[in-house]
Amino acid sequence: MLKLGVPSKGRLMEKTFDWFGARGLTMVKDGGEREYSGTVDGFDGLQLVLLSAGEIPRELAAGRIHLGVTGSDLVRDKLAHWDDQVEELAEMGFGHADLVIAVPSFWVDVDTLDDLDAAASAFRRRHGFRLRIATKYHQLVREFLTWNGVADYQLVDSQGATEGTVRHETAEAIADITSTGETLRANHLKILSDGTIHGSQATLFRARNAEWTDEDRELLARLIRKID
Ligand SMILES: Nc1ncnc2c1ncn2[C@@H]1O[C@H](COP(=O)(O)OP(=O)(O)OP(=O)(O)O)[C@@H](O)[C@H]1O
Ligand SMILES: O=P(O)(O)OC[C@H]1O[C@H](OP(=O)(O)OP(=O)(O)O)[C@H](O)[C@@H]1O
């Protein structure tokens, strides 16, 4: 059985079903709405496993699924050395969102990462603790800031409504996903001019560490012919 992990709900699920459908692969959920498994019409041996988009990277890395659809941001954030663990088979052209660093709009002197670094040092001197950046993308943000020489900060975990942390004074800046920019604007935040960490989209991944039988490989080759 070739196992394909697909998002079980939310913005990515419907579009994933549409994307495969447009390529002649009609996905069908087993049983009722809440049964988290399914099949693909006319494609025996391919089993759908419906999972939270956020869990698909871990399931791929563990080899519990052979293939998986999720945001490229989630794979990069959740898997250390992600490209050793998974291979990108197809960028799917939906689920676009940018992971960005944003600061309060009224910080007129802070427009770049260098400005943020200077502001962070000044903040620490003035307040006696490090400037707080709220995010759920810990690994990606840390790597990006280290690479860009920003040091005097601390990450605070925020699993949702991240833009609100600045207004509620639990963080001074944020790193989060944006697509229309509306949430940032509503919370009086601006993106640093060089503060885009990753441009994400839904992507089909192959697990390098899953067990691949000859039959699985044949199924994968057949699947790839369909989607190419
Ligand atoms: N406007 C947007 N806001 C947030 N994420 C978006 C947006 N557009 C696309 N995405 C992408 O959707 C994916 C997250 O989807 P979603 O929030 O449905 O999954 P999840 O984190 O697994 O949710 P849950 O944990 O509630 O199941 C990420 O890859 C993200 O980049
Ligand atoms: O640029 P925009 O179009 O305004 O979209 C960005 C918002 O959408 C996401 O939140 P989501 O709806 O997933 O809720 P969450 O805060 O619970 O993550 C993301 O975390 C931003 O808050």
TrEMBL record:
Biological process terms in GO annotation = L-histidine biosynthetic process
Example of a GO MF term: ATP phosphoribosyltransferase activity
Q: Please indicate if the UniProt record lists Amino-acid biosynthesis as a keyword.
A: yes
Q: Quick one: which pathway?
A: Amino-acid biosynthesis; L-histidine biosynthesis; L-histidine from 5-phospho-alpha-D-ribose 1-diphosphate: step 1/9
Q: In this protein, which residues make up the domain named ATP phosphoribosyltransferase catalytic?
A: 53-227
Reactions the enzyme catalyzes:
1-(5-phospho-beta-D-ribosyl)-ATP + diphosphate = 5-phospho-alpha-D-ribose 1-diphosphate + ATP
Gene Ontology CC entries for this record: cytoplasm
Q: Which Pfam families match?
A: HisG (PF01634)
UniProt keyword Flavoprotein, yes or no: no
Q: Give the EC number(s) under which this enzyme is classified.
A: 2.4.2.17
Q: Which UniProt keywords apply?
A: Amino-acid biosynthesis, Glycosyltransferase, Histidine biosynthesis, Transferase
Q: Which Gene3D superfamilies match?
A: Periplasmic binding protein-like II
Query: What does the UniProt record say this protein does?
Result: Catalyzes the condensation of ATP and 5-phosphoribose 1-diphosphate to form N'-(5'-phosphoribosyl)-ATP (PR-ATP). Has a crucial role in the pathway because the rate of histidine biosynthesis seems to be controlled primarily by regulation of HisG enzymatic activity.
- Protein name, as recorded: ATP phosphoribosyltransferase
- What is the species listed in this Swiss-Prot or TrEMBL entry? Palleronia abyssalis
